Amino acid sequence: MNSEEPKLLFLLAPIFVFCCCNLHAVAARHTITAGNPLTSNQPIVSENGDFELILPTPDDFYYARPAIWCMKYNLEVPVWSVYIDSTVVTTDDLQLSISDDGNLILLSKDGSLIWSTNVTSPAASNSTVAVLLDSGNLVLRDGLNSSNVLWQSFDHPSDTWLPGAPLGFDRSTGNHIFLTSFYVDPSYYSSLDVETVGSPQFVLQTNGSGEYDHSVQHLVVPTVIDIHQDSQRGTFTFHGRDGYTIIVLDGKWIYRHTCSENPSVGCFLQYYPFSSCVVRFYCGPFGICNATSMQCICPEGFLPTDPQSCEGGDCINGCRRVTPLSCKNESSSYRGYIFENLPDNPQSFPASDHEECESACTSNCSCTAYSFSFGCKLWHGDLIDSALCDHCSDGSPISIRTEIDSRRRNKHPERSLIGLSVGVVLGTATVLAVGLIVTWRCKKRSRTTDPIYSKSFRVFSYSNLTSATKNFSRKLGQGSFGSVFMGTLRDSTLVAVKKLQGLRQGEKQFRAEVITVGMIQHINIVRLLGFCAEGARRLLVYEFMTNGSLDSHLFSKTNSNTFLDWNQRYRIAIGIARGLAYLHEKCKDFIIHCDIKPENILLDEHLSPRIADFGMAKLFTRDGSRVLTTMRGTIGYLAPEWISGLAITHKADVYSFGMMLFEVISGRRNTERSEDGTYVYFPTWAAAKIHEGEVACLLDNKLKGEANSEELERACRVACWCIQELESSRPAMGLVVQMLEGVQEVNIPPIPTYLCNFVWDENGSNDTQVRGHCVDVFAE
């Protein structure tokens, strides 16, 4: 070593130490002062590093608001925010600083005031400081006296309840502290509050209706947290018993993030309601929610109040009686149901048995239903919040009153008595048998090692998924965004694990969007059970479908897969349409799949379709403020607007569905060479045959002509309407469901002009016969 090198190192050492100390000081900054405001270039961080206060940049399209983010246990979720209208205020160069009067203020690029703490008597600006504490509380206090707290975010929460933060009425200040839903929507909002009349209860108020949902109690006050009341302030706080827990209110949903201190356990997410069926007034008057399909149905003797809103059998606006009730006892009939919970506002009646309870209801003209379970209960007026109990052993029986049409009243009462007796005996035997089976199954389930899995959306560790998939050795398939592997969880549940590749989303956006997709529950959509986000790794865990994908049944040249007859194909088409209609029109967030094709349709053990592969799905707000222009999807199913560069809407999925529907009908790829050696683009030929009234020739040859001709005609017309060149000409998926079900008439569609450019013979030249037919059609 040169003799000068030690001297040089000795001289550079102080500089190196100075730089390191200054870098540490910059990284550890956790205050805002009058001379040192917060900008979007660098956040302030709590001393323990668990929380960060971050200002948005123009690139932050998902969460464009100043927010405190929880980084503890790699949660990376916003826990407090300042609402700004990004359509009015640009997020360029925002600044959070101390004003001249000592308030914490948010300024826009031009210096306009956006938000302020509005403290009436703050300290002088040169002594006021904003500090982000280790608890996640942003505190504005006197810098010369830290005990003099002027304002704190804990007293002004947004949508998240943190450990140690107060909730309820503060007797010392007169302030009412409660959570407000993330979405600022005048048509729907919610709040989480504490009701202190009598014993304290946590309640969810929705839509400002004055109706409270007390059933949220079991999620907000579970066994994993302890609730404490401040004797002086009267407010309530909570702390996790084993690990770290936060509670988030998001519209009608409440999430509970819980992270164990044991790294091998990690974090998991639970939410309330577990299904739409527990949302207040979800199905309207007399509507019954089916917890399996998440759809609203009408009881026997009732019809939808608004048939137009009853798309796909989902009657969310309630039901009305076919025949109004009368006061004639002999004209009343009852239909029995098993509900998860009895409707609200029953009246007790001192009946000694079931018959006396029914008689009490029948003798009262306004009685609409009764239940004899732990006493007699009668209902008067509309039944609200009814949910069927399909697979539970502890449901509540209820009998809904209907009116027998006088023209159909039974003229032979003795036959009715015999039939009733036989029915009661058989019904009782069936109920007992089902009860024994359900009880046995419930006991069997209770012995599983993962009690959280059944009702939660889980965060998996990478090591757990590596073990479940046997080091990713059981590959099921390869997609555009990654590979899919078969896995087995510790409770023997089969899952499909998708290992994403090339995903450019940040972890915050990935977690937020995946959680939204995980909330989706529909009978025709593959359920997302959980995810993994560790470092650069992104994995999705889905329920496993035993019959594979639709393409293997339609296009396979072997006999190894189940052959689909026409009835199965038509039922599959309707199921896919219902699933898409749910994504487009019924979800809390507007979801466009962007890659509908047979490979992304899975079939369960009953050959019912499930829409899969949300790796390419994009979330949209309902007002259309976020649009897609970057091409994604699969050639052959892409709508024309993908090519033209226009903004993408849900009608792109409609187009893809139409293309796929042609393949379901024909059992062949749309671009496959026909039997006579030509390369006639199948949708073009199909459109021409629809106009000629010769749709039978479009049917899969393997079906040997065995198909319902009316359904075939309807399916072909629907497919052609879906692939129209103009978005405005394509039907919405809700209307597609109605057309396939025969509720809506389907007219003959025009041949899309662009299809006439996809006609070739075996030599590669245009097929003049088909092209001429296109010209003839357009000339009409």
From TrEMBL:
GO terms for biological process: response to other organism. It is an enzyme of class 2 (transferase). One of its GO terms (molecular function) is carbohydrate binding. Its EC number is 2.7.11.1. Pfam families: B_lectin, PAN_2, Pkinase. It is found in: Cell membrane. InterPro entries: Bulb-type_lectin_dom (IPR001480), Bulb-type_lectin_dom_sf (IPR036426), Kinase-like_dom_sf (IPR011009), Pan_app (IPR003609), Prot_kinase_dom (IPR000719), Protein_kinase_ATP_BS (IPR017441), Ser/Thr_kinase_AS (IPR008271), SRK-like_kinase (IPR024171). The keyword Cell membrane applies. Residues 29-153 form the Bulb-type lectin domain. The chain crosses the membrane at residues 417-438. It catalyses: L-threonyl-[protein] + ATP = O-phospho-L-threonyl-[protein] + ADP + H(+); L-seryl-[protein] + ATP = O-phospho-L-seryl-[protein] + ADP + H(+). Residues 1-28 form the signal peptide. Residues 327-389 form the Apple domain. Keywords: ATP-binding, Cell membrane, Disulfide bond, EGF-like domain, Glycoprotein, Kinase, Lectin, Membrane, Nucleotide-binding, Phosphoprotein, Receptor, Serine/threonine-protein kinase, Signal, Transferase, Transmembrane, Transmembrane helix. ATP binds at residue 499. One of its GO terms (cellular component) is plasma membrane. Residues 470-743 form the Protein kinase domain. It is a single-pass type I membrane protein. PANTHER family: OS07G0415500 PROTEIN, RECEPTOR-LIKE SERINE_THREONINE-PROTEIN KINASE. Belongs to the protein kinase superfamily. Ser/Thr protein kinase family. This is Receptor-like serine/threonine-protein kinase. It comes from Ananas comosus (Pineapple).
